[in-house]
Amino acid sequence: MRKTQGRVQEAASMGQDFRVGPTCWTAFARGASELIRDEWALKLAGEEGARLNARFMDDLGARFMKDVVALRTVYLDNVIQDFVQAGGKQVVILGAGMDSRAWRLQRLARASRGFTLFEVDEPVLLDMKRERLGPSVIAQPLCRRVEIPAALTCTEEWGGALVDHPNFDSSVRSLFLIEDVSMYMPEQDFRAALAKVSALSARDSIICGDWVPRITVQGKLPGATSDIIAVFGSECNSPWLYGPRNARAFSNLLKEAGFATAEQLTSRAIEREVREFLPFGMAQQKIHLSIKSRSWTSYAAWAMCTFAPARLCAGAPSDIGLRVYMATRE
Q1: What tens digit of pLDDT does each residue of 157-192 get?
Q2: How many CB atoms lie within 10 A of CB 134?
Q3: Does some domain include residue 307?
Q4: What is the CATH number of the domain that holds 25?
Q5: How many degrees, rounded to 5, is the angle at CA 83 between CA 181 and CA 27?
Q6: How confident is the model at residue 40 (pLDDT cuts 50, 70, 90)?
Q7: pLDDT given at position 273
Q8: Backbone angles phi, psi at 130, to 5 degrees
Q9: Are 236 and 207 in contact (CB under 8 A)?
């Protein structure tokens, strides 16, 4: 562990961004949420995730950000599980960080024969994940798991590694997940990543993930939200760098890369949908997550009713502009 931490500190001193703080905090947020059953999350979060949580959830009152992470995670979990149930054979997580889906998504255990989940990220983060989970857990994912150690900005490197891997086939339908990544990349690097995903995707392949708008990146949100985000980025050595102007601009960005947007949802849109469930006595019910279109809304409804019937997080701004999306290769 100390060896990995030393590499992280050395990289940070050189001005390199490995998203260590954000990915550790995201793991902590998942582990602290009753909405997500993730027995490995807090171990993956480590001391860094706990420290950031104490600083931003307790000191700055940004509890609403954990709710956003939980809902985003559930939405993307279901996109992946729908894809797997439909017979999809390969999922690629770009910026896998401390992601534990290879161990916690039960649908992966029943995937089609030959299914592979690829995790692409900085070598230092993949090393950290192995050290924190330990050899016994790493050796027992629910599906075949392949690590691709490469910086996300090195598109030719990770793209070439996927093409050269015997279990990846660019001629069959794939799913690419880009979660909690786009805002930390310069625009040209994110565009290059989309172009590489497009080049590796067969027709009807899926790309999904999240993004935040330019107004959020530029710190122009009302109240204290922008200050919280700015301090978070500073302490993590991972400031937010890029956000498209609006949903139409992001759809156009995907279209330029050859993808047709299927849907985009904001946290406020999720909140509005959840309110419809409130009169039906769902507040104390834990809804079983079925693998059907939009089934995630029922699960989100249970979480929202349980945690904050009135708002996503009472007394705090609940909209940082974040959107989740899904698009298909044309």
Answers
A1: 999 999 999 999 999 999 999 999 999 999 999 999
A2: 10
A3: no
A4: 3.40.50.150
A5: 35
A6: very high
A7: 55
A8: -60, -45
A9: no
Token code pair at residue 42: 């807090």
β pairing state of 175-178 and 116-121: unpaired
Whose CA is closest to 296, among 83, 82, 45, 85? 82
Alpha-carbon span 283 to 268, nearest angstrom: 19
287 falls within a domain: no
Beta strands in the chain (DSSP E): 90-94, 116-121, 144-149, 175-178, 206-211, 259-266, 323-329
Domain hosting 105: range is 2-266+321-329
Evaluate whether residue 305 is within a structural domain. Answer: no
Domain count, the chain: 1
Q: In a 3-state reduction of DSSP, which class is residue 199?
A: helix
Does residue 309 lie in a domain region? Answer: no
Please give the torsion angle defined by the CA atoms of residues 115, 121, 126 and 129, in that order, rounded to the nearest 10 degrees. -80
Q: Cβ distance 87 to 60 under 8 Å?
A: no
Which pTM does this prediction carry?
0.85
